[in-house]
């Protein structure tokens, strides 16, 4: 791990976490491209690399918390008042309940796939295939959204389906933001509402992974050997880039469709599958 790699991967994470192009896939591709060009075995993934990936996600989590700080504060206050008064009619309180329920559903769906997801880190060609498939999900979601009336408020059914999509997207190549936004479009949500809920729903999952994994998988003596300067640098970069990405992505999807990202996923997925199949 060096500063150039850390900065590059921070930029990749910051861009790809919120764009519907699978940040996990791009981290797999970037890390393995480095290995190929350095002559290192692709299977040689260390705990430092895995921990660095988690820290990169933590950086983009901070970006979400800052960007949506007012919404998050309102959700927490409304949910507290709803529990206190036993009146759950407030929309922000409902949103808080949907996020809690969605997080539980995500964990139930994602946990059984944990081993598969870990193995996919060593098989970037398959990750490319999954990214290719994500492209078609984006195409179809845009096609479907044009056939249904768009709504700006979330309901229980939509929140459950979006949570199921987030759980499935635990696999690298299945874009979390792409699948959750697409699931929202399938159920008649407009792009802005689907994207906002997608980003808010990511908070508990990323926070949980950031807090739980290091204590389970990594001991203190091993952590002391990590290149913390590079890790913290990459984390900072991912947060800064992630914040700007949220800001301009929200502006983008208010005017344009996700089709361009569908083409990107198809082309990138095809290229990486060919590269890692025939040239490594």
- Name the poorly predicted regions: none
Helical coverage, percent range: over 70%
Shape: globular
Number of domains: 1
The helix/strand series, from N terminus to C terminus, equals HHHHHHHHHHHHH
Count of DSSP H/I helices: 13
Q: In this structure, how is the largest beta sheet organized?
A: none
Structure description:
The chain is an all-alpha fold. It has one domain. It has 13 helices and no strands. Helix 4 packs across helix 5 (91-110), helix 7 packs parallel to helix 9 (176-186) and helix 8 (156-168) runs antiparallel to helix 9. The radius of gyration is 19 Å and the shape is globular. The mean pLDDT is 91.
Q: How do the helices and strands line up, and which of them pair or pack?
A:
Blueprint: H1 3-16, H2 23-38, H3 47-67, H4 69-85, H5 91-110, H6 114-120, H7 124-145, H8 156-168, H9 176-186, H10 191-217, H11 220-223, H12 228-253, H13 259-278
Characteristics:
280 residues; globular; 0% strand; mainly alpha
Describe the structure concisely for a colleague.
The chain is mainly alpha-helical and 280 residues long. 78% of the residues lie in helices and 0% in strands.
